[in-house]
Design goal:
Elements: E1 6-11, E2 14-19, H1 30-44, E3 51-56, E4 60-62, H2 67-70, H3 75-94, E5 100-104, E6 107-109, H4 111-117, E7 121-125, E8 129-131, H5 148-153, H6 155-162, E9 168-169, H7 170-176, E10 181-183, H8 188-200, H9 204-217, H10 224-235, H11 238-249
Parallel strand pairs: 2-3, 3-5, 4-6, 5-7, 6-8, 7-10
Antiparallel strand pairs: 1-2, 8-9
């Protein structure tokens, strides 16, 4: 689904995804979530892209979900059409084959932090504020705020944000491991592009494999990485090629155990 509020730009081997709804602090509605999922499909299909960056337009990275989009929903629709759908889209982003950098150009709250957490590297501008304020609205983080964030940043940091309502500055977030680097105001995307260029110089197959193995070690994927790696390996073997040829030729396969 096309939506001008999710913009894709390609610079050499780098794809830049921009959330472009600055008048709403880049808060998501359903159409934007759908477009973000489609953007993931688009950049992943382009073999020339080795790194992706996600950022926001204007003064905020992302303020999470637009309350006008989910507020009127019934409990059932909220759980299925909003929370579960958004969770699937963010999981799609987190499992892109290429490394993903979040260029955090401003406030990153609620679903915005869950979005940033889907990235492999986070670079925040110094003025950014980071937190999970959902409980102040009587709700809970629904786009992996209590799952992926705990795995990546530790339970106590998440407790402080969710239970205590703490909002961290960019420097505090770096000390806690929520972000990897802090940039001056207006330079976050430039810093992200520089880091992306560093990544793009490395072997793309090795990067993809390492990303899968790290996710597996961190307990993030429930075996997806193991099956993906095994499938890639099997696809490169002589046995699989022979099996496909035998099936197409309607003859018995003659496997030789060739790797």
């Amino acid at each position: 689904m096309s939506d001008a509020r999710i913009r894709i730009e390609i610079e050499n081997a780098i794809a830049i995804l921009t959330i472009a709804r600055p008048e709403k602090l880049n808060a998501f509605d359903i159409d934007m979530l759908t477009a973000l999922g489609a953007a993931c499909d688009t950049i992943e299909a382009d073999a020339t892209i080795r790194v992706a960056i996600i950022t926001g337009e204007g003064k905020a990275f992302c303020a999470g979900g637009d309350i006008k989009a989910w507020g009127p929903m019934s409990p059932s629709d909220f759980g299925h059409q909003w929370v579960r759908f958004g969770h699937r889209v963010f999981e799609r982003l987190a499992t892109l084959r290429m490394p993903l950098i979040a260029a955090i150009n401003g406030h990153t709250l609620g679903g915005g932090l869950e979005l940033a957490a889907a990235a492999d590297i986070r670079i925040a501008e110094v003025q950014a504020k980071i937190g999970l304020p959902e409980t102040s609205l009587g709700m809970v983080p629904g786009w992996s705020g209590t799952q992926r964030l705990v795995k990546r940043f530790g339970a106590q940091t998440v407790r402080r944000m969710v239970l205590g309502g703490e909002i961290f500055s960019a420097e505090e977030a770096r000390a806690l491991g929520l972000v990897d680097a802090v940039a001056e105001t207006g330079t976050g995307l430039t810093a992200a592009k520089a880091y992306a260029g560093r990544i793009a110089e490395r072997g793309p197959a090795a990067l993809e494999i390492c990303k899968l193995m790290i996710a597996s070690a961190n307990g993030e994927d429930n075996g997806t990485a193991v099956e993906a790696l095994g499938s890639i390996l099997a696809a490169k073997t002589g046995d699989m090629k022979e099996g496909v040829a035998a099936f197409s030729g309607k003859r018995p396969a003659e496997f030789k155990g060739e790797w």
